[in-house]
Amino acid sequence: MFRLILSCFRQRPWPPSRVEAPEIDDDELTQEENSRTPLSCYYPMRVGEVLGHRYQVTAKLGCGSRSTVWLARNLHRWRWQSAQYVSIKVTITSESEDSQTDLDELYLLDRITNANKSHWSYACVRSLLDHFYIRGPAGKHLCMVFTPLREPLGLTKYHWADEKISLALLKVIAQQLLGGLDYLHSQCKIIHCDISDNNVILSIAEEVRNKIPDDISKDEWADPSPVKHLADRTLYSARHDFGPLYPNIGGIVITDFDQSVGGEGDWDRNHDCQPEGLTAPEVILRVGFSYSADIWNFGALLCGMVEGKPLFDDASRREHGTEFSEALSFARMIAILGPPPQALLDRGERVADFYDEEKRFKFPELVPKDCSFETFFTRVEGEDKEKLIAFAKRMLKWLPEERETAKELLGDEWMQ
């Protein structure tokens, strides 16, 4: 009886919107339909649904190969309190072959959340607020609850006319990214394995932490995003517009740990991981990797963000519909860094994929003739360019043990 009385003072779910959402054309594929994951593995979410008897879904934020992400309103609030929002990552069904990945991610998130909350860069890594399971037609789905964030770095570039993030902001982002990596490596003993511009997300400034999600939720209710109705589910468009950057950003946050592994213990640290074009040579060659693989990943990502094009990939590949080539990526490494040392080649399980019995690179025609740090960086000049090249060379080294740690890199001149 007492609980029933208390529930009367709790915030209530919003009723369904009376505005009909526009339809997505049948020949236009949604994020879920474009994914390599079978559509049936995704939970058939409905905007307005209440998850875990507590969170009402108000808008879709995104979709990946292993999950969808939703904005939700926390109903465990008194009616006289302001609305409070969370983002919920709903994984594909845990009865799939990837069910262990859910458990690993949950374990690593718990370690990240509780390792050292007083660390200066704790806020640069996403921590877990809550988790629970829901059941869909294909089985159970893990729901992980987080503080809402803005858009990922991959979408931030559209705030600038030339679609390149300002160098001043990039230097701040680089410092915070390294701080987050230092927290992961030194405090949590975790290797991220997937540092991309989709997994680094801008946070919302504290003073508008709930206002921006509230505006998005109310706008979605009053003017719904386009949807596609299928026989067994409704597919929603994702909301990416979080308004102007300034003064609504509070920093960056490293997210998505479904590819991450422990840096110690019996975790597998000799497998395919990291984004295309940002993969460390020891990962490509199957030498085995450690925390330094994240440093390479970060260095290659930063160089690409400075110029708006990849350092170790063909910048025009996607425009021509060409598939990614490990051989081309490795050839660009050779052009920029020189030939790999024999000490690295002697340790790799996949060296034969790239080198013949005479230790000659099998694809010499792919090595560009005029490719170096000096020719790649065209956006910076003078002393700033010299400092940036020196910074890149501290991270992009063939031998993993020669790369500097995140903590050592934090004081680099280029970021000051």
Question: Which SSEs are present, and which pair or pack?
Answer:
Layout: H1 2-7, H2 31-34, E1 50-51, E2 55-63, E3 67-74, E4 85-91, H3 99-114, E5 130-136, E6 139-146, H4 153-156, H5 167-188, E7 190-191, E8 200-204, H6 211-222, E9 227-229, E10 234-236, E11 249-254, E12 261-262, H7 281-284, H8 292-307, H9 326-337, H10 342-345, H11 373-376, H12 382-395, H13 406-409
Antiparallel strand pairs: 1-2, 2-3, 3-4, 4-6, 5-6, 7-12, 8-11, 9-10
β-sheet strand percentage: 5-15%
The largest beta-sheet arranges its strands as 1-2-3-4-6-5
Largest sheet: 6 strands, antiparallel
Please give the radius of gyration in angstroms: 23 Å
Keywords:
about 30% helix, single chain, two-stranded antiparallel ribbon, 13 helices, globular, alpha+beta
If you had to describe this structure to a student in words, what would you say it looks like?
The chain is globular and about 75 Å long. The strands form four sheets. A six-stranded antiparallel sheet has the order 1-2-3-4-6-5. A two-stranded antiparallel ribbon has the order 7-12. The protein has a two-stranded antiparallel ribbon with strand order 8-11. It is built from 13 helices and twelve strands. Helices cover 29% and strands 15% of the residues. Helix 5 (167-188) packs antiparallel against helix 8 (292-307). The mean pLDDT is 92. A hairpin with a 2-residue loop joins strand 5 and strand 6 (139-146). It is of the alpha+beta class and 416 residues long.
